[in-house]
Design brief:
The protein has a domain of 114 residues: 7,8-Dihydro-6-hydroxymethylpterin-pyrophosphokinase HPPK (Alpha-Beta Plaits), CATH 3.30.70. Helices cover 28% and strands 23% of the residues. The chain contains four helices and seven strands, in the order βαβββαβββαα. The strands form two sheets. Strands 1, 2, 3, 4 and 5 form a five-stranded antiparallel β-sheet that branches. α3 runs antiparallel to α4. The longest helix is centred in the middle third of the chain and has 14 residues. It is globular and about 45 Å long.
Length: 178
């Protein structure tokens, strides 16, 4: 086990509803621009699917995008968004995402540096969380086409709980500004 994560196996996910938490739909932003990007994303998906209290529901298509910020000369990203159902709290889910990143070789050398995998908790239901370094909804998702487009593929009608705009409206604004 890795911080509560089971190693990949052929067994199906163990989604065990914790009686103290009602299942919540969450959205995870996914990106990779180092190594075998698609394989790393698949491995992260497997690890997340096998995390107790998480049920993988669906994935948006993969998009290849240019890096935003960070050092010059880094490779293209592959990005997507996953929709999951979870009985984990927002902070526990984020802890699991960070453990997966570490397991898959993510190094945090500098802001916006190249990475094997990046897993961002975009939305945890329609809740607003600001605690222990966790800010949900993700504070910059409304500025990023590579997050909004895959979110649009999954839930164009989802309303951002802070901005009070649908994903469709937010994506239109990004198109207007770029």
């Amino acid at each position: 086990m890795i911080n509560g994560l089971k190693k990949p196996s052929n067994e199906s996910s163990s989604f065990t509803a914790d009686s103290s938490f009602v299942p919540t739909i969450a959205y995870i932003g996914v990106g990779s621009n180092l190594g075998d990007r698609k394989q790393t994303i698949e491995c992260a998906k497997t690890l997340l699917s096998e995390t107790r209290g998480v049920r993988f529901l669906r994935s948006a298509p993969l998009y290849e995008t240019k890096p935003v910020g960070g050092p010059q000369g880094q490779g293209m990203y592959v990005n997507t968004v996953w929709e999951i159902e979870t009985t984990l709290t927002g902070p526990k889910l984020m802890e699991s995402l960070l453990a997966i990143e570490t397991h898959l070789g993510r190094e945090r050398s500098s802001e916006n540096s190249p990475r094997t995998i990046d897993l961002d908790l975009l939305f945890w239901g329609d809740e607003i969380l600001n605690q222990s370094g966790l800010s949900v909804p993700h504070p910059r998702l409304h500025e990023r086409w590579f997050v909004l487009k895959p979110l649009w593929d999954l839930r164009a009608d989802f309303v951002h709980p802070v901005l009070k705009k649908s994903i469709c409206e937010l994506l239109d604004r990004v198109h207007e500004n770029h």
